Amino acid sequence: MNDLLADLRIVEFSAFVAAPLGGMTMAQLGAEVIRIDPLGGGIDHYRWPVAESGASIYWAGLNKAKRSVALALDRPEGRELAKAIATAPGAGAGIVLTNLPPLPGLDYASLKTARDDMIMLRLIGNRDGSAAVDYTVNAASGFPLVTGPQSEKGGTAPINNVLPAWDVATGLYLSTALLAAERHRTRTGAGQEVVAALADVMLAMVGHLGYVGDVQLNGRSRPPLGNDLYGSFGRDFATADGRRVMIIALTPRQWRALGRATGLSDALAALGPRLGVDLDTEAGRFDARDAIAALVAPWCAARTLAEIATAFAGSGVLWGPFQDFATLVNHDPRCSTANPLFAEIDQPGIGRYLAPGLPLDFSAAPRRPTRPAPLLGEHTDQVLAELLGLSAPAIGRLHDCGIAAGPATPSGTR
Amino acid sequence: MNDLLADLRIVEFSAFVAAPLGGMTMAQLGAEVIRIDPLGGGIDHYRWPVAESGASIYWAGLNKAKRSVALALDRPEGRELAKAIATAPGAGAGIVLTNLPPLPGLDYASLKTARDDMIMLRLIGNRDGSAAVDYTVNAASGFPLVTGPQSEKGGTAPINNVLPAWDVATGLYLSTALLAAERHRTRTGAGQEVVAALADVMLAMVGHLGYVGDVQLNGRSRPPLGNDLYGSFGRDFATADGRRVMIIALTPRQWRALGRATGLSDALAALGPRLGVDLDTEAGRFDARDAIAALVAPWCAARTLAEIATAFAGSGVLWGPFQDFATLVNHDPRCSTANPLFAEIDQPGIGRYLAPGLPLDFSAAPRRPTRPAPLLGEHTDQVLAELLGLSAPAIGRLHDCGIAAGPATPSGTR
Hints:
Largest sheet of chain A: 7 strands, mixed
Largest interface: A-B, 155 and 155 residues
Oligomer: homodimer
Radius of gyration of chain A: 26 Å
Distance between the termini of chain A: 30 Å
Structural class of chain A: alpha/beta
Number of helices of chain A: 16
Number of strands of chain A: 13
Strand content of chain A: 15-25%
Shape of chain A: elongated
């Protein structure tokens, strides 16, 4: 959290990962981000992982530092209020971020009738408007068929990423696009609609990383290589105490460090002439990867993780242990309040736990305390009063008519 | 490509994925991005995949639309020129993006002496300054130990993502941060240094997605589930013709569509009472996933991919086929010039192939032709003349002294 974008107001109609992450990135940069949900919550309101109460740790994680407004978006009066909030005055306001099909009156053209300089960022699945989510986009990307060890694969055993990487990338493209569009508005007065297709983010990245060119120019694509790096040296090794470490040599410096730290310099150097490859190049180390690994593996297997860590400390070897989520959370000091990225927060309905802020340190914008996610509808009344100037009786009437709702029970459960 | 940021100038000292992607995102938004490399190229200049000539398709992919300057950065005179380029006047200039250890005279403090409103974005590995790359950060994230099928895992068989997802996310955090810092400078006149640690990006995302809370609050973390979704229904299925499809039911609408399209509505509905779960909830479908899959699998196995595509067309089923890179490139119409994302470009030293532009459509900034990557040193002379006002003889002297270099042979090989 910092205050860099404190003069921006963004209204979000969203669910799942990408759009909420884009909005949360703005919120953690100080923008006022108002997520408007239907009464009872959006389709992501109960996604796993959940707390014992049933409240979603996932939802809380992706909506930190936002304000929450709950309106009956299935009724015209609810949508009118949402439109009024989205188009409310303010030089840094009039920005909508959404990944949901536009509701009547809440599409870009309708919002623009109320505020001519409207900016809308709209995430869709495929460019043609058909549905796509991280899982289907990933299936089409080619990556699952080259993930995991080669021996177990016959072109029919895809392995999906667990990290929703396409959603994450798309969320951050949206935050970049929002600032680019707002910059343009500041200079010209003109708003605009920005459309991002999740599938296009995948396609762009497959192209940027060279896989499209490899197929088109070389008529091939990289095979599954397990945890080996493609075109360089890197692999995972087992330790004496049942752990695994990733060891990498991208640069000549890292390569020499590996030889020195393991005492294998001479044995490794002898591989070059024997195999007829130049081990000072990445391609040479890739070609010799099995022979290199055959020397490094017994060295690792004879040592515990702690012994390896000692041997590699300060050596210049590029390496790291594999660990599971529990070890990361309970034993890695980077995942603790010793890291300014993290703060202990009290998340209403869920409990007290470590929450990350923004993974960026701005020297001109000090880090502020990480704020929890709102309860659903926590800011409904405040926003109706502040932005639309509604009186307490008017807001009360909206509650009575089932048009607006405040926070549900703190447990967050249905 | 568009012209949204045409008044910005960014100087990049970079290698590999994250920083080059952040800079390229700015370049594809119209900014002038000057990548300054050492003579002969940076440590990523020959990374795989490569063309037959040895030129890197990977490097070309991550440096499209930039200008390239090659200077002897190991010599004071080369670094002085780099500093002069980085700090050259211009309201939208004075921005440096780097993931390399700062060279003498090119750290933030030194640049600030020449230009007080300097913005520097600096990517490091770990916050404490120690080295980390996508592979080591990923190993620490917990994800590799829950990737792939459960049966083959005993806590010792991590499976890495092939997509460098942490690098991609970090590159896009950098583009977001750059625009936030530049916005601040426009308003206040103040530059700043922004530091991002690759490990912090991973930690933030593990937290945002709920895995930190799951461990801290529930004392557990999700197990490996193969390609099953966590907390909802989604799995891959084999087709009669040896392909695989991903089928997902996140929402009640998608769930009902799956029943209708497969003719399995009644059989699926009967699972609820039999198993004692509510299949209208994501958690219920997750609990019943094996029973659901047992009905869907034979339906898929009896049909070819084409038959499944026909059955699902317009049905509302959320699904997609797995495909390898070659099928994506050669047979998926989204990966062709039928998609405005792509253009055929002539990449000097490599050849003619499909290159993606920006996966964002701005209604107020028409899409411009995708520009290829430069040859190493292609713009050295232009930049020295335009930004530093050097005369042709002065530039000639720099070449003669080995301080500056123009493009290498078009093949791009050493």
